[in-house]
Amino acid sequence: MNKLNVPGPKARALIERDKKVISASYPRGYPFVMDHGKGVEVWDPDGNRFIDFMSGIAVLSTGHANPRVVKAVQDAAEKFLHISSDFYHEGWVRLSEKLDEIAPFEETAKTFLTNSGTEAVETAIKLAKFRTKRHNFIGFFGAFHGRTMGSVAFTASKPHYHRGFYPLMPGVTHVPFPNPYRPILERRPGEDYGETVVRFIEEEIFDHNVPGDEIAGVLVEPIQGEGGYLVPPDGFFPALRKLCDKYGILLIADEVQSGMGRTGKWWAIEHFGVEPDIVTSAKGIASGMPLGACIARESVMTWHKGTHGNTFGGNPISCAASIATIELLEEQYLTNATEVGEYMLDALQEIQTCHPSVGDVRGKGLMIGVEFVKDKTTKEPNEALRDMVEKYGFQHGLLLLGCGRSVIRLAPPLCLTRKEADEGLKIFEYALTLAEHKQGMI
Ligand SMILES: Cc1ncc(COP(=O)(O)O)c(C=O)c1O
Predict the structure, then answer these.
(1) Taking the domain 83-314, which CATH number applies?
(2) What per-residue confidence (pLDDT) applies to 7?
(3) Ramachandran area for residue 365 (φ above 0: left; ψ -120 to 50: alpha; else beta)
(4) CA of 117 to the centre of ligand 1 (A)
(5) Which of 53, 115, 243, 366 is spaced 20 to 30 Å from 396 by Cα?
(6) Atom of ligand 1 nearest to the CA of 280
(7) Distance of CA 2 from the midpoint of ligand 1 (Å)
(8) Sheet strands side by side (includes 358-364)
(9) Could you report the average pLDDT of every consecutive run of 10 residues in the chain (442 residues)?
(10) Is residue 264 classed as helix, strand or coil in its secondary structure?
(11) pLDDT at site 323
């Protein structure tokens, strides 16, 4: 397989300039420099071509520079760039009507638009407090909800998100996420592990720590993203919904990463037959234009004028990009995510049988996690191998992104064809073989 000379001279020069003027806090994994992209392919300034299996962290739902999205952006930009959230415009209303149509609950949805995922989560936190007049929450270990002062209090995937930033927003109690590959709570006979976690919340947290009737909301990713692309067992969400109803708690589904068609349904929570009260969205909602949304049942979004707002909310360019994105997903990419997702999952499970380091393969649609271990019996995480797979992938023309302790997340654009999937998977398996060789596993 052809090894690229990366980063090439132009990429290296740009990275040197970047180091001088850009905040060092960004978690760059490897030195890819973007020049341009088309669909699932991207090129760096030295002319190297890559297959993109990470979509700018699960953002480019319709692929790079989708012509319909680009045209929608151009048309909107020619009309006006901004008017502020103090006024009204067609695109904003149309997008909110669309979000009402696709919201994962029967009740009419009201939407607050933001510029990012974290801001959508902040909105949900404030709304839950305002609506319930309570100030405590349940969050999950491994969760990622953003890095601003409210959302970061829930984020619990890595300690560096908290180190140096205490005190965080008070009132968040974390519990284990139902990880079927690595359960840490004891399951009772006949119990689904998701039900075990919900029982833990009621019997341990509510009975010993925070009273259930003082909890405003449970904030949860229907498929945990940054924590390792973890799919909860089927019993989890039905049990959680029941618990929330019992104590008058709002169920907040953070679909920033798992939503907007990534799993083959509009929202990942739809796989579990449960309706949340509030949904947060961002990333794939506008194919790369900055946009987030806090979508709530109308009976929940009851706050009044002035309680919450922002300058850029309802930006016309982002709204236009989002409407075009939703139409494309409706017409073809939602179905494609299911079909090509199943194809990829099968292929990866086949790869798992031939490689000693692949402990687990899981996912829904085009949200797939591959977890690497030192030994399939002990399941000891193999972080070093995961990092090598990422690096060798890059050197051979594939963009990958890690998550969890030793997981690669596969989150390609939802327009991925089987042919492109094959090309990327071939590089993936080659990178994996090199890494296993390097560790003496094969
Ligand atoms: C589930 C989830 N929530 C919230 C966020 C924060 O989004 P942003 O980075 O746009 O603030 C992310 C980002 O990765 C996420 O995955």
Answers:
(1) 3.40.640.10
(2) 98
(3) left
(4) 5
(5) 366
(6) 3
(7) 35
(8) 358-364, 367-372, 407-410, 401-403
(9) 96 98 94 98 98 98 98 98 96 98 98 98 98 98 98 96 96 98 97 98 98 98 98 98 98 98 98 98 98 98 96 97 98 98 98 98 98 98 98 98 98 98 98 98 94
(10) coil
(11) 98
Spans of all domains in the chain:
9-65+333-438, 83-314
Predicted model pTM: 0.98
Cα–Cα distance for residue pair 82/14, rounded to 1 Å = 31
Please provide the distance, in angstroms rounded to a whole number, between the alpha carbons at the two ends of the chain.
19
Q: Ligand 1: which of 151, 252, 256 to mutate, most ligand atoms within 8 Å of CB?
A: 256
DSSP strands (E only) in 146-301: 172-175, 215-220, 250-254, 278-281, 292-297
- Supply the pLDDT for residue 258: 98
DSSP annotation string for 313-361:
TT-HHHHHHHHHHHHHIIIIIHHHHHHHHHHHHHHHHHHHHH-TTEEEE
Position in ligand 1 atom list of the atom nearest CA 119: 11
Please give the pLDDT value at position 151. 98
DSSP 374: S
Q: Of all atoms in ligand 1, which is nearest to the CA of residue 118? A: 11
Query: Residue 100: CB partners within 8 Å, gap ≥ 6?
Result: 108, 109, 110, 111
What CATH number does domain 9-65+333-438 carry, 3.30.1130.10, 3.30.70.20, 3.40.50.1860, 3.90.1150.10? 3.90.1150.10
- Give the pLDDT score at 266: 98
Give pLDDT, residue 253. 99
Q: By the 8 A CB rule, do 437 and 382 touch?
A: no
The owner of tokens 């030994």 is 375
Does the C-beta of 414 come closer than 6 Å to ligand 1?
no
For residue 300, what is the DSSP state? Answer: T
- Residue 226 beta carbon below 6 angstroms from any ligand 1 atom: yes
